[in-house]
Amino acid sequence: MGQAWGFGRHGGPEVQEFFDRPDPVPGSGEVLIRVDVAGVNPLDHLLRSGLVPGLDGGRPFPRVLGMEAAGTVLALGEDVDGLEVGDAVFGFALTGGGTYAETTVLSAPNTARIPAGLSATVAATLPVAGTTAVDALDQLGLPAGATVLVNGVGGGVGLAVARLAVARELRVIGTGSTAKRESAEAVGARFIDYTAEDVGAAARELVPDGFDGIVDLAGGPSLRTVAPLAREARTVISVGDMSVAELGGRFVERRLDRENLARSARLALDGVLAPVITAVHPLADAPAALATVENGHPSGKVVIKVA
Questions:
Q1: Strands, DSSP E only, in the chain?
Q2: What is the torsional sign of CA 42, 174, 149, 274?
Q3: How does pLDDT run across 147-165, given as a tens digit for each residue?
Q4: For 285, what's the count of Cα atoms within 13 Å in the CB-facing half-sphere?
Q5: Does residue 11 carry a pLDDT above 80?
Q6: pTM for this entry
Q7: What is the pLDDT of residue 52?
Q8: Distance CA 287, CA 200 (A)
Q9: How far apart are CA 261 and CA 109, in angstroms?
Q10: How far apart are the C-alpha atoms of 179 and 304, rounded to whole Å?
Q11: Which H, E and C letters describe 58-123, residue by residue?
Q12: Could you give the C-alpha distances from 230 to 16, 101, 213, in angstroms and in order?
């Protein structure tokens, strides 16, 4: 038996609970891992609230929270290639196993080895934030010297996008609240504080001819404010708002495969995708970890250290 933290029904934080569960048995295409570190993401509380159906693998309640983790392979299901028992790995729990737990199952095609020299803590932040940053900037395809606006730069994904954009020799402007200024400027972004100035006016002053591309992480009214700032609507990519298509832009096309995970790990090993980890919680503190992401708009990534 191992401890896990999850939810007994859909709803708000009141439905969350700790419980014991037997080690999951890996099915076809799955690996059982001992979880060392789990990443915390906004998607976690959206799944708990029942707003993102279809990612629970059909598992019964109580369900375990969490979508990304790093750990050690304990057992292999059938039809698993390229991984072995004892491997240090990181990846996605796309079949509903959750990751806020002592052990869990990851989807083998969406799991990669952790390269030597990369910590499990860093690796656990890459499945969501790291690969999203790579996907968004690859799909923009901007040349060195171009200017990109990162709308909502202060969170884990936004900082990863900004850092990777700077490494690609792009000029980066980021929007965020006052508390995000220091972390955004530390990764090389010019910062616009939406709580203190008009974003549209400030952006036009910095880039009068319009942005070569926009990566939107905020969605909603904020997306509609910044989208007209792009030279061409098709160069607006949103990570969190599918209605971007109504504005002529595109929703990010996610690549969750092992190859993209490995690529993100190499970038992290080289220091290009160095995550800004602002809080590390033990499993017993999982409620506080998720509350930080759900309510506090953290500057950077929050992780749960399980092992």
A1: 2-7, 16-21, 30-40, 63-64, 68-76, 88-92, 103-107, 111-113, 147-151, 171-176, 190-193, 213-216, 236-238, 250-251, 277-282, 301-305
A2: negative
A3: 999 999 988 999 999 999 9
A4: 12
A5: yes
A6: 0.94
A7: 84
A8: 37
A9: 10
A10: 22
A11: CCCCCEECCCEEEEEEEEECCCCCCCCCCCEEEEECCCCCCCCECEEEEEHHHEEECCCCCCHHHH
A12: 41, 43, 6
Residues 187-246: tens digit of each pLDDT: 999 999 999 999 999 999 999 999 999 999 999 999 999 999 999 999 999 998 999 999
- Calculate the alpha carbon distances from 295 to 52, 281, 287, 289, 290 in Å: 18, 16, 12, 10, 8
Residues in the chain: 307
Determine how many CB atoms are found less than 10 A away from the CB of residue 301.
Answer: 28
Query: Contact 194/175 with Cβ under 8 angstroms?
Result: yes
When the pLDDT of each residue in the chain is averaged and rounded to a whole number, the result is 95
Is residue 281 classed as helix, strand or coil in its secondary structure? strand
For residue 232, the model assigns a pLDDT of 95
Cis peptide before 221 (omega within 30 of 0): no
What tokens appear for 233 in the block? 């609507």
Q: In the chain, pLDDT over 90 holds for what percent of residues?
A: 92
Average pLDDT of the segment spanning 25-37: 97
| Residues pairing with 214 in the sheet | 149, 236
Which residues are within 8 A (CB) of 59 and not within 5 positions of it... i.e. 6 or more apart? 96, 97
C-alpha closest to that of 71 among 113, 23, 40, 107 = 113
